């Protein structure tokens, strides 16, 4: 996921990522500040930082840290579900002039285990093929986790659909019984009326 978005200084902006459990998430960002004289986003001034906070919907905080104008953050999801990733600059009220805004370039990668070429060179006795094979196995395990998570979501959706269909069926049966009861009552009322008027 690569994107950019605009926020005001001191404004908080959050995105939501739906993640399987025990999954590594890698994020890389860069901040640019709007220049009112050049009418363009320029490289951020030194000293401007960004608070990055990651939490679950239940409020459990997985990451809360202040980074610089450029930064890289990592976290691992503990449970499957939606995770909230929030960004807020550390601008003070004196620096944040009216209308000042920032552009955040963000690249988020989910479940990637990055292959470090320097690690292969540093360990001369390690066979490069076996290292690449381990990397491939990790990627396969991640794909398998993703599939298990999707199957789990499909199972929940199927159960919900079945429960809804069952409720609709019972409601249709109840409606039919009510209509039959009302029909029988109307016929009996008409019959009693005709007998009372000696029309039958």
Automatic annotation (TrEMBL):
One family from Pfam that matches here is EMP24_GP25L
**Primary site of residence:** endoplasmic reticulum
Q: Which organism is it from?
A: Neopipo cinnamomea
Q: Where are the transmembrane segments?
A: 168-187
Which family is it part of?
Belongs to the EMP24/GP25L family.
The name of this protein is TMD11 protein
- Superkingdom in the source lineage: Eukaryota
Q: Which residues form a coiled coil?
A: 119-146
The entry's cellular-component GO terms read:
endoplasmic reticulum membrane
- Write down the membrane topology: Single-pass type I membrane protein
- Tell me the keywords, alphabetical order: Coiled coil, Endoplasmic reticulum, Membrane, Signal, Transmembrane, Transmembrane helix
Spell out the subcellular localization from the entry. Answer: Endoplasmic reticulum membrane; Membrane
Name of the encoding gene: Tmed11
| Domain spans labelled GOLD | 12-110
PROSITE patterns associated with the record? GOLD
What InterPro entries does the record point to? Emp24-like (IPR015720), GOLD_dom (IPR009038)
């Amino acid at each position: 996921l690569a994107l950019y978005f605009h926020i005001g200084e001191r404004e908080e902006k959050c995105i939501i990522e739906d993640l399987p459990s025990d999954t590594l998430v890698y994020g890389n960002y860069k901040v640019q500040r709007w220049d009112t004289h050049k009418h363009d986003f320029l490289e951020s001034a030194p000293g401007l930082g960004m608070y990055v906070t990651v939490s679950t919907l239940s409020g459990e905080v997985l990451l809360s840290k202040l980074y610089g104008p450029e930064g890289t953050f990592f976290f691992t999801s503990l449970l499957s579900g939606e995770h909230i990733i929030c960004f807020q600059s550390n601008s003070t009220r004196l620096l944040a002039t009216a209308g000042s805004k920032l552009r955040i370039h963000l690249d988020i990668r989910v479940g990637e285990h990055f292959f470090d070429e320097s690690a292969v060179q540093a360990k001369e006795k390690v066979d490069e093929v076996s290292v690449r094979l381990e990397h491939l196995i990790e990627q396969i395990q991640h794909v398998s986790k993703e599939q298990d998570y999707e199957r789990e979501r499909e199972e929940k959706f199927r159960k919900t659909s079945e429960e809804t269909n069952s409720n609709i069926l019972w409601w249709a049966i109840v409606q039919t019984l009510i209509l039959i009861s009302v029909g029988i009552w109307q016929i009996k009322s008409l019959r009693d009326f005709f007998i009372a008027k000696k029309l039958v």
